[in-house]
């Protein structure tokens, strides 16, 4: 299901809602909340999980009480490296006819095809919100299936028209590209549920003051689970000014 704006939400509320993509698979909702709450007062935080298994799908929704904190969080966290992941933080969008049904299911991909390859192939058709390559749980090897969520329905239409049933360069067999949210399909209903964000209780955390404060937060989970870098590498270039050390 696409992220949707509740009818009682104000424009200010919508502007405070963020989607966080490409999170480490083992990262918990509590850890996400703790990290993002260093920016300001969090209104909602929800890690999206697969309904059947409870496994993290690698993305979450975070909402700040103050819209200014949302912009600051994007500047600080977008492009941040956590373990082997580079997270992407952007504004979550209210639903509209233009963005509904922009999720694609792709099958027939080579076993060597990774998420970067997937985004390279589909990125030519528009802005990708999130993507995923499914892997075998036992071996960790990709199983030839992926998902791509575009910013606009029209972009997804272009990708289907260009790639469905075609043999891309370097492939031996054609791939199948179709919408992942076909109505009345139980499997797709499960896929749709992966995008549902619900609201949680309000909590208050002190704002982040220094870069080293954030480093300390990231180091507090086990043996530096989310801190495989130095403090100098912590903040991406576009966010350095937002948390410059005093």
UniProtKB/TrEMBL annotation:
Keywords: Nucleus, Repeat, RNA-binding. GO terms for biological process: negative regulation of gene expression; negative regulation of mRNA processing; positive regulation of signal transduction. It is found in: Nucleus. Gene3D superfamilies: 3.30.70.330. GO terms for cellular component: cytoplasm; nucleus; ribonucleoprotein complex. Residues 16-94, 102-182 form the RRM domain. One of its GO terms (molecular function) is mRNA binding. InterPro entries: ELAD_HU_SF, Elav_RRM1, Hud_Sxl_RNA, Nucleotide-bd_a/b_plait_sf, RBD_domain_sf, RRM_dom. Signal peptide: none annotated. Belongs to the RRM elav family. PANTHER family: EUKARYOTIC TRANSLATION INITIATION FACTOR 3 SUBUNIT G. This is RRM domain-containing protein.
